[in-house]
User: Fold these one by one.
Assistant:
Number 1:
Amino acid sequence: MIRLDRISALLVQLQSRPVVKASEMANRFGVSQRTIYRDMRTLSEAGVTICGNSGIGYSLVEGYRLPSLMFTREEAMAFLTAEKMMEQLTDAQNSNYFCQGMDKIRAALRTADKDYLYKMDDSIAVYKSKNTQDSLPNVMQTLLSSINDHFIIEIDYINADERKSHRALEAVGISYSHPHWYLSAWCHLRKEYRMFRLDRIHHIKTTIDKHTRVHPPLQSLLGADDPHCLREVILHTSKEVARYNADRCYYMGLTGEKELANGKIEQTYMAYSLELLARWVLSHADTTTVVSPGEVKEIIKEIIQKSEL
């Protein structure tokens, strides 16, 4: 990246974030922190009012506004792709808000780019898989607001066994693992962190009560749930099976894989149904073994025993 492009990108970062850290920008652009310091000084000398605090970062002085920056054609195409995904993979309310934002993005484009985007609209499509929920309840905006404002929410929830329960939750974050959205939250009923499928939330209400604790990052909670939600499963399989079933593996919940010294592939899954994954492993019994958890091995044994009756 040439220096002019990097300085322009830094200007965008200052406009879009409350604080810009030199270390983060150095990693982002592949340069030294000293280079970022020089770039920030260049922006200041050009009249951009920047304040910087040691150990905190850089920010625009309160009240200072820069003129809007034009989107490039490539950026607009990325937004168009995201719009297609938002239409299919989020709830109607959240999708509608994104579409409103897209209209504002289109309004900021040059006429030629507006025409280009209009012509490309029918050339991008996102389709739901047959296992994706037909429609999500309009809960995303409520959840995100409660996370930001630290308010406790109450939900009516139906689990995999069709059992209904009323929960008071402290929402930490939402995540998408094909084909479902999940909420990670501290559950007052169970006194532990749990994950809840958004399509199984049938009513949601924000209370006036604040969170009772400081919560860990969302990433550290992924997979924290009861037996009816995501469980970590580790398998060892052959390279051929891993390659041949690549798409199917991701559908089953594959989150990572690495090659072992013996040539086998170690796969890590976050599985919603241990039985479903066990039956899939059984179909590759000659090439695939279960490392953990032992429950999957027990399920496979039960299936085999029943088949011998």
Note: The first strand starts at residue 50 and ends at 53.
Number 2:
Amino acid sequence: MGLLSAVFAVLLVLGLPVAFAIGIAGFTFFMTNGVMPIQIGVQRIAAMSQSFPLLAVPFFVLAGHMMNESGITERLFAFSRTAVAWMAGGLAQVSIILSTLMGGVSGSAVADAAMESRVLGPEMEREGYARGYSAAVIALSSLITSTIPPSIGLILFGFVGEVSIGRLFLAGIVPGLLMMTVLMVTAWLVARRRGYVDPEAEKPTMPALRRTAWDAKWALLFPVLLIVSIRGGLFTPSEVGAFAVVYALLVGRFAHKVLRLEGLRRSFDDAVTDIGMIMLIILMSGMVGFAITFLRVPQELSEFLLEGLKNPTLIVGAILVFLFVAGLFFESTILVLLLTPIFVPVIRSVGFDPVHFGILMMTLVTLGSMTPPVGVCMYTVCSLLNCRIEDYVRESLPFLAAVLMLVVVLLIFPQLVLFLPNWAFG
């Protein structure tokens, strides 16, 4: 395992694409272990593609791009602005609400943050918001997409860890809403102290709120239909991805009447690029996952943790600290694919619910995208807003502290996460 890890780390430092770094590290294991023929490695790559649940990934990625071309984003923005722009830090509150609503559309933190940087960033600057504050709010609020269904990360966690994706989707709703709440409170407190208050802003009237909600009804209805269809047994999580594509097509073409052939072509072009990148990483991770199982890494790690810690909550807490640190240096997709096969057997052996763990894991590894030194989401937002990294880091500290406190609360009180899936599925 040491050689595999060393090869992977060296290749990443040399700048090799992640998928190839994983693949070469996996082949290194099969060429040097002296027991397993290299043909097994090739078979593991092929075996990773033979999974029905994995179909959810390309379907939801395509659906997200189609919805962005279907006029949904503009309607969600109008609804969010009407609902919360009157508050202190109004545009920051709009960003957080929009991330919550877009989580059910894009399923991607980076895509959500990039979109909001283009839409909200210039307006926040015109209204006198500090660039660091604007960048921190936009980047950290996109973390909500890690748990609000249909999160691509939860799909991958469920696929690799053999955990119910339907239960994961339902489990992510309450943590996502709680994250929205703590971020809104944090943004409000900072904005009040800074004076980011529009003296002319007024609370929305009910007719205005009803009008913008009605305009955005198809976008607001989508997460509800997604959850109800899975809970009612109408679709599996994989099949509901196909439903999402059809839904986006019908909404864009017939309800909003803005989806044209050119927009459809752009959706497919962008989706093919994203799907190709994700699937190549997934396929190559099959060899590493096999090596982890063959070398009994989960069993040895479990024995090591159980020797020093007896309380399941403390064991999971130690794992979460490791995941947070790992998230600072590696992209979330990599960590989910490589570490889920290691940690899920460990937390199951101590009696901890894997659905509960999946929500906490996805929150922390996705948080790494918003933090130095290699945060993809952080660099995306800062480059689009022309914001200095040091300004971003300083302004993000209150939001980061709020998210970490929420993770601790969710760890200590598991029913906040498990209430909905237990109610729906038993």
Note: The CA atoms of residues 163 and 387 lie 40 Å apart.
Number 3:
Amino acid sequence: MSKIAITTGDLLGIGEEITIKALNSLNLPSEDILIIGKNLNSKLNTEYETIEIDQKDNGRFCFESLKIACKFADEGSIKAIVTAPVSKEALYKSGYEYSGQTEILQKFLGDKNQEAESKTSGAKAKAEMIFISDDLRVLLLTRHLALKDVKLSKDLIIDKVLRTNDFLVKKCNIENPKFALCALNPHAGENGILGNEEKDIMMPAVLELRNLGINITEPLSADGLFAHVGEKYLNKEKQEYDCILASYHDQGLCPVKALCFKKTVNTTIGLKVIRTSPSSGTAYDIAGKGIADATGMEEAIKLAFKLSD
């Protein structure tokens, strides 16, 4: 089980181009890679095993590619999955009502009866989304939701932090991970003036996690926290925290993408294998022009190998 699978992504996007550029740049051995989707070998320096998807419908092509990758992962034939970008709208138009590739992975690799390795959490296998660039890591407590639908609970926070703690200890070799928790409301709620979630939901979760031995801050104002994180990143200094916990999608991703967009890798943890992906989208506007930057895809492939070894 030495190979990683790479899905070539959206038929109309930059997936094919950045996969070709990344593989030619990395020059990996033929036995290391399985390509699923389009056959790219005529444009590659090295010929890789390929499973072609004979499907012209864009959404179906994307879904079937990922489904086959999950099948190989479930069987133990591959050790990680790297996904090129896919359009959520394309999936929806083809009848697949998933809010992203992470949710498809959860469907096929999230075994409700399979307990994770953690003895403290007793958690079931469940997908979590964490964005990684060097030692900057941001986990999303909620993912692809309308802002009005973002809801946190004590149990949700505890569950996700315990899963992420397992990942940081076992895959990143961090002995006692330190977490920083972003408050949901501006100024951490100002003691209830701007919202009660910090007092009623977040602090009870923090106290219980601390009782379990987890090193976690109280809810911190997200703007101040990311200003501190950004200063360290730009100065190439070691981050104070091993993982930032963002309450919702844009709270975490706007600062991360502003700081390190090209290098940031969207990583799915908590399932049978690691999945990585560049944080860029399908980029329809530049598809086919040969100008797409493949840095994110290179970083995704490198991280997949690193985390699955």
Note: Confidence is low (pLDDT under 50) at residues 112-123.
Number 4:
Amino acid sequence: MDNILIGFVMIMAVVIVIGVVNEKLIKMPNDIALVLFSFLLSALLELIVSISGIRISHRISNGIKEFHLDELLLNGVLCFMLFAGASKVHYGRFMKNFKAISLLALLTTVLSSFVYGGLFYLINRLLGLELDVWLCVLLGCIVSPTDPIAATSILNKLGLSKNVTSVIEGESLFNDGTGVALFVCIKNIVNDTSEYSFLELMGREILGALAIGIGVSFVMCKLLRSTKDPTKHIMISLFSVSCVYVVCEYFEFSGVIASVVCGMFFAKQLEKYDNWRQVVDPENFYLHFWDVADALLNSMLFVLIGFSILYIPNHSHLIWLLLSAVVLNFIARFIGVYSSTLLIGKERPNQYSRMEFTTLMTWSGLKGGLSLALALSTIAFLDQNAYEIVMIVTYATLFFTTVVQGLTTSKIYKLVEKSKLKRKLSRIK
């Protein structure tokens, strides 16, 4: 408990210091700054521990490790973060781009996972790592889903059009359910305990999550309308999302999808009764609470991601694994998105060409805490060598997409927009 408290104090201190310094001097997106500088700080911390053996540094690093990011995220705050993110999704734009979002969330995630697994298996053979092909596919399942927290926290601040942001947010909010279902299915194959096929597992997870999410949210929104106390509105929303997540996890449905459904349902209902809400909550107490909770939880998560270097082991093929992680992620994501565009047809947002849309969606596919949590959970069934490879590859993918791609997505967006403009002008001529 003592170490956990030390870790919490350290994380909040980092959040505050980096946030203030970044706001005054550096001025990069705050969430990216938290990942980047907490990464540098954790590297420095490890160096101090290894060289000097200073006890306080060792206690701080242990305190951070005892947060158990996989349990904290998957069994703790994930549902609240998803609820907060889903509450900000514009329902009209979401429905307008539903075909693109659903194909990206399902088809792209599945194809990317298998393409990544196949390519990594070739790298594995070249490096002599002797990993099973299904274990390589499992690694693809871990790194393929885009992250809803990274998408809603970072991409909203980069000047992308609302239509494009809606597609990126929608995919990232729903493809985690696909990724988790595929992860469980492939994990059962790796452990030789397969009980359901992927389609059976997906149907069970999605349909069950929709039923629980809509059912509980409908009842709770009726209850919310019966009281004029904004604090009770907050309590009802907290209970609703935690309830749907716990119930879904108990019945082995997707708690991730149910939390997103719950957030979107509440947002839609509050928008429907906007005049009533402004009367009973003129100070927007409810919305401000979720804004603050979202900012706090996201900030802590991005610092924990930066500090996750403390989990990364050394390896004889470290450089090759790091490079492979970045390159294969790009290739697999590109193939997955491009394949989806063949079915999306001309319903691509902003009237992008197939290559323009594929380029933008490939580069804006940020990874985050869920991928890291899934990677950490593999320690329960993988041997030490396989677990080390999974952690190295996952962290490299996560760090590159969050920091490098997160900082440059706005530039790619502008290049895509210029390409679209030139294409239109050439048609006019």
Note: The mean pLDDT is 85.
